[in-house]
Amino acid sequence: MSTIPVGMTLGELAVRFGCTLKGDPDARVSHVATLEGADSAALTFLANPRYRRFLSQTKAGVVVLEPKFADECKGAALLTSNPYAAYARMAALLHPAPSVPAGVHATAIVAATATVDATASIGPRAVIEDNVVIGPRAVIGAGCVVMRDSHIGADTRLVANVTLCHGVKLGERCVLHPGVVIGADGFGLAPDQGQWIKVPQVGSVSIGNDVEIGANTTVDRGAIEDTLIGDGVKLDNQIQIAHNVQIGAHTVVAGCTGISGSAVIGQRCMIGGMVGIAGHLSICDDVVLTGTSFVSGSIHKPGYYSSGLPIDETSRFRKNVARFHHLDELAREVRRLGRRLETDAHGTDEDPA
Amino acid sequence: MSTIPVGMTLGELAVRFGCTLKGDPDARVSHVATLEGADSAALTFLANPRYRRFLSQTKAGVVVLEPKFADECKGAALLTSNPYAAYARMAALLHPAPSVPAGVHATAIVAATATVDATASIGPRAVIEDNVVIGPRAVIGAGCVVMRDSHIGADTRLVANVTLCHGVKLGERCVLHPGVVIGADGFGLAPDQGQWIKVPQVGSVSIGNDVEIGANTTVDRGAIEDTLIGDGVKLDNQIQIAHNVQIGAHTVVAGCTGISGSAVIGQRCMIGGMVGIAGHLSICDDVVLTGTSFVSGSIHKPGYYSSGLPIDETSRFRKNVARFHHLDELAREVRRLGRRLETDAHGTDEDPA
Amino acid sequence: MSTIPVGMTLGELAVRFGCTLKGDPDARVSHVATLEGADSAALTFLANPRYRRFLSQTKAGVVVLEPKFADECKGAALLTSNPYAAYARMAALLHPAPSVPAGVHATAIVAATATVDATASIGPRAVIEDNVVIGPRAVIGAGCVVMRDSHIGADTRLVANVTLCHGVKLGERCVLHPGVVIGADGFGLAPDQGQWIKVPQVGSVSIGNDVEIGANTTVDRGAIEDTLIGDGVKLDNQIQIAHNVQIGAHTVVAGCTGISGSAVIGQRCMIGGMVGIAGHLSICDDVVLTGTSFVSGSIHKPGYYSSGLPIDETSRFRKNVARFHHLDELAREVRRLGRRLETDAHGTDEDPA
């Protein structure tokens, strides 16, 4: 009785992902690992130069890396100009997600007017309301609630305990992690005689293809028109996207960031963690915002922007803060001193004595 | 067979909401739209002067706006001193929420000791524990968990997947969006020999009438007495309210803000997004905190307060930050220079030569 | 018919918790209260000197406090060097959590391959997937989802609507509050030709004993190896812990804080609220970060660190910010003035006149 070989040969990997192989094409790897933690059946990679020091010591079966580092790697290597992307694709092959059986779980509640593709999977305790449409191979995990009139594209997955409010449109191949809420009412309030009147939020949310949304992130429905998330956008955990925000294609946003109402974000932006973006402004394409930045006005030029003040020892920080609170006065004093020196100098120059 | 006319006539709207009508009272509008996106069956409004440039071009059936802008609007207009509030009320009329049938869904789990009003609606998979009281016309959406001894007032709605821990009290006409958690334990820890002992959180949470709480916002139960949220308070998404916070009536808080334990916030405050408020302090009535402010001490005077540092290009920002970390030294140097100039001057003045 | 006395006698409390009693050992207390709100059946405490002014007026049955304040307390007192820790233990005794019946609720869904200890409790609508192991006396609350291959230690409690993704390991005596998500995919993306490729997250999350995790907090699974949370760590609400973060034993983190990928945090650190910590850095043991700090590099020395800029009146703040954005120029100007004064002085000194 023969055993089925696990994993992939290095030769197969090289051919499939267009890499140059240094080493035995018949050697096999079965799983991924870090440079430090790898054994001889592991595939690993070098992308961040920070970890280059581990290269000469690794016991990995093969390392995916740039050709320029090939000599530093004693074992087998798969050479490519973009090792991180190649690694990502190889890892997906070595560690496929378990297949989910198609069909509706006995404890799911699916409205008679909903249209669920026969190849889709509806998990235990999921609730699918009226007129919802769920596409081929979509997976709705345990405890998800999909409210009336929502559309979910092919191959999209709601992991578990996700809530889609009514009329939300999700594209294809999206992943929404647990605790995500899409389409809750935007924060629309009209002041009236010392109180706040709720402004009905009659828009919805439209999300493109290949979008990933991290755990407990929220995207509010539009006040009148829709909140828009473009194709290929990736949102990390705990992000808040307010009503009528627009995020351009292939923009990525790190955790804990908040984007206020009607902000328009361009394509291919990289927005760091815990960034705050004010409302009713626009950010052009290809802007990078470093972590904890605060954006209070529009950005019209691609580039790197920051305002996160890094830590100092508390005692020293407090002294500097005290000075900061009088910085305008300090600047005026410096100007005054400058003028005085100038006057003194001129006085001396002009002194006829 | 006659058709039932949809929407409302402009005459009905003018009378009902006390506006002055400019235009045909028998014309009808059926839905709301933006100034830009409106068609002839749409009602729209002008409140933010930012959008005034769209006024002359709009195709809307009617625009709700201030009398002073009436001449700029070529079509019909409903004139009022507070167009945003009037719009909010009209939009609620044109876009009513679908009615929810009263009664307990077959898959809901309601404890025998719970008291659910006959006009309330308990959705699929909701869990209602012992001694809970649910008032008239309240709506408990799919997947909500309401733990023992909680009280939910009349006309209050838990949209879906909301968790109320034990003994929480919610007033009337509140709306809690998906993922909200009310009454989880506050973060009470006593240090003891290098470890932390949990301090039992025996208080609860008491929430007034007409409160709205955004998706994934959390309000912790009090350590001993209750955390208190006043009437008409509006909380956006992803907010954290710690144990024993008190928030005065009609205060609004934007997304991602965190309020630490035992902070007491006044009435009618407007707290921006991603604001951090330290514990054990008080903020008086009518305070406005702009986005990403950090409040480390009490505020005793109404007004506008800020500390959100706005972005700059990263390279320039870093240079300024490096200087900030020596700001105290810089200020001392300026003082030294000033004294020196003074001495030199006095030296000159006093110079008997 | 005799009544069963409620609560505890002061004598019992003194003996059990090693306090010195000042007062009647047979007097009883039945519940806890604040110094201000206490009645004669209440136990209260003084730990924060801020509340010392209430000590002379309290009507409490007994006050737990340090011996040095004993004279200021007119009624009974339990004297101890750590009154807050002693109070925490006494409160747990006076206010025990209600017992949860062992067994699986009729509406829970437990996979045939899962191992649930007979003394554990699985609540209504909970979903327990394949190969999950749940230890003695563990409590899985309503609506929780525990995915395949996860392990939950003895006496650990998932309050309600908690999501554990596959393969997560939780220690003993942990508490996870509602909305917590453990083990969602980390935010791993490889750039490739203007798009982002998902990097499979094949690690998991390992959480020690005695860990408490606040409502709506998220801890992501590792990219390759596991995200690690040490024994006795306490996380408040709305915290984001990214993939491959390591948090040392007995570190506490306040609400809304975000910790980026691969950051390594030491033991016994105290991390304030809304702190942002960048990725791929390390923070040594015994570091205190005050609220809204931003950590962009490693910290090698125990101590207090800050960068949260506190508020000022908005008009004044804006003036200072405008100066901040030219701080480098200001510092150069000050140096120029200093050099000029020096030159002038030297010029004068050296002036042979």
CATH homology superfamily name of the largest domain in chain A: Hexapeptide repeat proteins
Of all chain pairs, the largest interface belongs to:
A-B, 75 and 76 residues
Computed over alpha carbons, the radius of gyration of chain A is 28 Å
Count the domains of chain A: 3
Shape of chain A: flat
The CATH class of the largest domain in chain A turns out to be Mainly Beta
Strand coverage percent of chain A = 25-35%
- Mean pLDDT across the residues of chain A is 95
- Quaternary state of this entry equals homotrimer
Structural class of chain A: alpha/beta
Spatial strand arrangement across the major sheet of chain A? 8-11-14-17-20-25-28-31-34-37-39
CATH architecture title of the largest domain in chain A: 3 Solenoid
Q: Are there runs of chain A of 5+ residues with pLDDT below 50, and where?
A: 349-353
Query: How many E-type strands of chain A?
Result: 40
CATH topology heading of the largest domain in chain A? UDP N-Acetylglucosamine Acyltransferase, domain 1
- Give the N-terminus to C-terminus distance of chain A in angstroms: 114 Å
Main beta sheet of chain A, described?
A: 11 strands, parallel
List the topology elements:
The structure is a homotrimer of 353-residue chains.
Chain A lengths: L7 E2 H8 L2 E3 L5 E2 L1 E2 L9 E4 L16 E4 L11 E3 L3 H12 L8 E2 L4 E2 L4 E2 L4 E2 L4 E2 L4 E2 L4 E2 L4 E2 L4 E2 L4 E2 L4 E2 L4 E2 L4 E2 L4 E4 L4 E4 L2 E4 L6 E3 L4 E2 L4 E3 L6 E3 L4 E2 L4 E2 L4 E2 L4 E2 L4 E2 L4 E2 L4 E2 L4 E2 L4 E2 L3 E3 L4 E2 L7 E4 L5 E2 H11 L2 H24 L3
Parallel strand pairs in A: 4-5, 5-6, 6-7, 8-11, 9-12, 10-13, 11-14, 12-15, 13-16, 14-17, 15-18, 16-19, 17-20, 18-21, 19-24, 20-25, 21-26, 24-27, 25-28, 26-29, 27-30, 28-31, 29-32, 30-33, 31-34, 32-35, 33-36, 34-37, 35-38, 37-39
Antiparallel strand pairs in A: 1-3, 2-7, 22-23
